[in-house]
Amino acid sequence: MATDVAVPSAASAAPKRLSLLRVLGPMHVWALGVGIVLVGEFMGWNFTVAKGGVFGALVACWFSGILYSCVAMIDSEVSSTVASAGGQYAQAKHILGPLAAFNIALFIIFEYCMLAAGDSLVVGAIVNSLDPALSPTPFVVLTIAFLAWLNYRGVHTSLTFNFIITAIAFITILVLIVGAEFWNPGAITQTEALFAQPPGSADPKMPYGWLGILAALQFGIWYYLGIEGTCQTAEECRSAPRALPVGTMSGLITLLVAATLTWYICTSLVNWITLGESLYPLYDAAVNTGKQWLMVVLWIGTVLSCLASANGCINDASRAWFAMGRDQFIPRWFGGVHPRYKTPYRAILFLVPIMIAFGYTGLLDQVITFSIISGCLIYFIMPLNMIRFRRLYPMDSIKRGYVSPFHPLPSYVLFAFVSLTFLAMYFGYWRNLVAALVFYGLCSIWFVMHRFKYVDRAKLYTMPWPRPKGY
Amino acid sequence: MEWINYVVWAIAILILVWLVIDAFRIETTYDHDLLVSSVEGEIEKEILDHAHPATPGQGGS
C-alpha cells in the first residue's frame, strides 16, 4: 500500500495536514459491508425458525431484506454526498444537528464494538469446541489484537484481507448447497419431509401463526445487520460517489442471495426445532449431509465469517470515534491520524481494551442484544435524515453519486418496518431496550449540559456545501 | 494442548505491546497539531467543484 511517509527531520517535506488515505474502491466497500454481516448467516438468523417456523423465517428474511434495501438506498444517496469518516454521524451532523449526530455516533460505536466482541467470543468458543484444553480467552484477545493491528497498519491491507476471507466464507455456503446435491431433492436434502406436519405436533411451517412471524422479525435482521457500516469508509474511497453506492448495493444483493440460500439449505437439512436452537446452523446443516469434508469447509467458513465481521467492526467503530474526536464531541486527541499509515490510530487503540473487556464478560447474548438495539436506533434516525436532506438540499442544489428512487417511500417503509422490529424486540428483550434507552439518554444529557461547551462551533462545519434551502 | 494457550497469549501480548510502542513513538516524534490536523470536507470540495465548477455565491457554513 502507499505509505506517503512524513519524515520528521525533513521539516520542509513534511505535510502540513494529515488525512486518511484515499485508496479504497467498490471491492473494499463490498468487503466491509458483507464482511460485517455474513456472520449472521452462519449464526443467529435461525432463531427466527424457533419463533415463526420455516415459513416465518423466510418472511422475516425478506421483510428484513426490504428494510435493509431502504437502508442501503438512503445511505447510498446521502453518503455519496457527505463523504466523511463517521458515515451516518457526519450525515446527521450536517442535516439534523449536533445532538442527533452525537447519538448516532454512540449507536455506531456500541453496535460495532459489541459485535466485534461477540465475534471474538464465538471464535474462542469454536476453538474451545475443538479441544476443551484450549481456553477461549486467549483466542478472544488474540482475535481482537490481531485485527486491531491490521486496522492500525492501514485500511487498504485490512479491507483487502476482509475481501479475501469474506469471499471464501461466502463460497463455503455455495459449496454446502452443491455438496448437498440441491438438484436432487430427497437424496440428501429432505425438504418435503422436514416441512410436513407430524401427527399431533405443531406445523413446522408456521407453528405460532402470524404472531410467531412478528416475534421472528427481531432475529430476521441478523441476515443483514451492519451493512450500513459501508459509509464509514467514505473518506477513504478513491471516488466516494461511485464506490459507496456500487459497493453497498452489490453487497446488499450478495446478502439477499446468501440469506435466501442459507434459509433454503438449512431448513432442507435440519429439523425446525433443532434448527431453532442451533448455535451454528450452517455447520449443523453440513453435519446432516454426513460428509466429513463439508463439515471442515463450513467450520472454516464460520471462523472466517467471524473474523471478517470483527475486522469490519473495528474499522467502523474507530472511524466513528475518530470523527467525533475531530469535531471535539469527545477530546480532540482522538482525532489523531497516524503520519505513516494514515489511519485513526488513537481511536483504534482506545477501542481495543473496550472490545476486549466486552469479550472478557463472556455474555454473548447480552453483548449481541445491545449491539442490535444500537443498530436499530440508527435506522430510526435515518428516515428523518433523508427526508430533511432532500428538503434542505433539493436535487438541483447538490451533486449526488446515487439518487434513491421513489423518495420518500423508502424512508416511510424503513420507519414502519423498524417500528415493527422494535415492537418485536420489546416483547422479547424489553429490559435490554429500556436499559439502552436510559444509557443513551444519560449520554445525551452529558453532551448537552457539559461536553458541547468545548465544541468549537466555527470549525464544526467545514464542508464547502451550498447554503441549505430556506437559510 | 495447554501449551498452545500460552503461545496464543504470548502472540496477543506481543501485538498489543507493538501497538503501544509504535503509538508512543509517534506521540513523541511528531507535533500534536500535525497529528490532529485532519479536517472534514476535503473530498466534498472536489465533488462540488466537479459538479459546479463556477457556481457563485456558495460557501461553507
Explain what the structure shows.
With about 475 residues, chain A is mostly helical. Chain A contains 16 helices and no strands. Chain A has a single domain (about 25-455), classed as Amino acid/polyamine transporter I (Up-down Bundle). Chain B is mainly α and about 60 residues long. Chain B has a domain at about 1-30. Chain B has 3 helices and no strands. Chain B is elongated and about 50 Å long. Chains A and B meet through helix 6, helix 13 and helix 14 of A and helix 1 and helix 3 of B.
Provide the CATH top-level class of chain A: Mainly Alpha
Please give the number of β-strands of chain B. Answer: 0
Major β-sheet profile of chain A: none
How many strand elements of chain A? 0
Q: Provide the CATH architecture of chain A.
A: Up-down Bundle
Task: Name some characteristics of this structure.
heterodimer; A: 471 residues; mainly alpha; Amino acid/polyamine transporter I; 16 helices; globular; disordered N terminus; B: 61 residues; disordered C terminus
Quick overview of this protein structure:
Chain A is mainly α and 471 residues long.
How are the SSEs placed, and which strands pair?
The complex is a heterodimer of chains A (471) and B (61).
Chain A: H1 26-37, H2 39-42, H3 47-79, H4 88-95, H5 98-130, H6 136-153, H7 155-179, H8 191-195, H9 209-220, H10 240-267, H11 272-277, H12 281-289, H13 292-326, H14 345-361, H15 364-392, H16 409-449
Helix pairs in contact in A: 1-7, 1-10, 1-13, 3-9, 3-10, 3-15, 3-16, 4-5, 4-15, 5-6, 5-13, 5-14, 5-15, 5-16, 6-7, 6-13, 6-14, 7-10, 7-13, 9-16, 10-12, 12-13, 13-14, 15-16
Chain B: H1 2-29, H2 32-35, H3 42-51
